[in-house]
Amino acid sequence: MATEQHAELIKTLHDCAAACNHCFDACLQEDDVKMMAQCIRLDRECADICTYLEHAITRNSPFVAELAKACGAICEACAEECSKHEHDHCKKCAEACAKCAEACRNVA
Amino acid sequence: MATEQHAELIKTLHDCAAACNHCFDACLQEDDVKMMAQCIRLDRECADICTYLEHAITRNSPFVAELAKACGAICEACAEECSKHEHDHCKKCAEACAKCAEACRNVA
Amino acid sequence: MATEQHAELIKTLHDCAAACNHCFDACLQEDDVKMMAQCIRLDRECADICTYLEHAITRNSPFVAELAKACGAICEACAEECSKHEHDHCKKCAEACAKCAEACRNVA
Amino acid sequence: MATEQHAELIKTLHDCAAACNHCFDACLQEDDVKMMAQCIRLDRECADICTYLEHAITRNSPFVAELAKACGAICEACAEECSKHEHDHCKKCAEACAKCAEACRNVA
Q: For an interface test with A, which of D46, D52, D67 has the most A Cβ atoms less than 10 Å from its Cβ?
């Protein structure tokens, strides 16, 4: 079953989506929101696609590889943007995204 | 069929989601992003739930009324926030959200 | 933070979405698919809204209560349908949905 | 703006998602649901990703090409499955999916 085969990927996607959503929320509360605009945008993109892919895996979607390819590219872009910022939520998000990008590449 | 019965609601939800997503994108490109933080947050909430509900109606979901109740409350909050701002995208979004809030109340 | 405050709800929603998606997949592979038609429909509804709500909580959505109200009603309907069937995946799904319905009512 | 640049793709995705969701609903009401099991599965996959991509375009996502690549592959698979069946909803769905697959390939 897909859920068992991809148990680690599911956890990685889940942690990445949570980190991105937390970073989105925290960026909107920063003093300098303007500096975080691209981060806010990519956090939403990344949280959405990770959530989507996790959900697709658990329903045994036949398209995990195709979706993981897109997800990996989005995670990579979000990791790069988040790594430019010093906020703790950005650093944690960059780390979660980089890990998730690699996990996605492995199944793509 | 739900799609025919709810043809007008589907269009209203669709226009509202598009207006919210456009407002989200435009707010992130404003000079004063900080002032738009709550607008950005609510635009995402509202675009997401309108998209969700539209999608649910077309699959003949038995839960249109329950979802429309939540959607209407979110549209209302987004309309209120957007109406505080003078940007053209906010004004258009406020209008689309107010119209959608009413349409949702009618089916909830 | 919403994620910490709602840690248990997040887990309950996650388990419910996974159980519903697994039940959806398994129902489509049963010999008597016709008997499972309503279960397949409600599994999709329930997995989708649980995934949506979990995602909304982690982005600190101001609308957790409104969404939880709709989610609870959907979980309840899915629990009722799944409890009519003897398949192991249906029984597990009914249990996860009943638990999630109650968790949703507590925050709604 | 992405919404204007991709106006035709947005309409094509929207029509495809609606056709897939209608086919999903109609398949679940057929006499021989078992024969439609793969169609039901792919209708969900295809409706979900088309809805996702349409939503992503309207928020000016930087990842339209990556997502369109996955979406095109899913549309193609759904078109192929639906074209095996004689039901009117399957034929219309196959047509909408084939058109959408081509539109996705053009932006991927």
A: D67
Task: Tell me what ipTM this predicted complex has.
Answer: 0.95
Helix H, strand E, coil C: the string for A38-75 is HHHHHHHHHHHHHHHHHHHHHCCCCCHHHHHHHHHHHH
B84, with CB counted inside 10 A (0-12, 13-18, 19+), is: exposed
| Euclidean distance between CA atoms A83 and A91, whole angstroms | 6
- pLDDT digits over D22-41, tens only? 999 999 999 999 999 999 99
Question: Residue B39 carries which side chain, given as an amino acid letter?
Answer: C
Q: Domain spans of chain D? A: 2-107
Side chain identity, residue B2 = A
Max Cα distance, chain B (Å): 46
B92 within 8 A of B21, measured Cβ to Cβ: no
> What DSSP state is assigned to residue D31?
S
Residue from A45, A40, D16, D59 nearest B18 by CA: D59
How many Å apart are CA B59 and CA D93, to the nearest integer? 13
Whether B21 and D58 lie within 8 Å, measured CB to CB: yes
Contact A21 C58 (CB under 8 A): yes
B58-105 pLDDT, tens digit each: 999 999 999 999 999 999 999 999 999 999 999 999 999 999 999 999
Contact assignment for D66 to A63 by CB distance below 8 Å: no
Q: How far is B1 from chain D (nearest CA, A)?
A: 9
Interface B:C, Cβ pairs < 8 A: 47
CATH number given to A2-107:
1.20.1270.360
**Helix, strand or coil for residue B53?**
helix
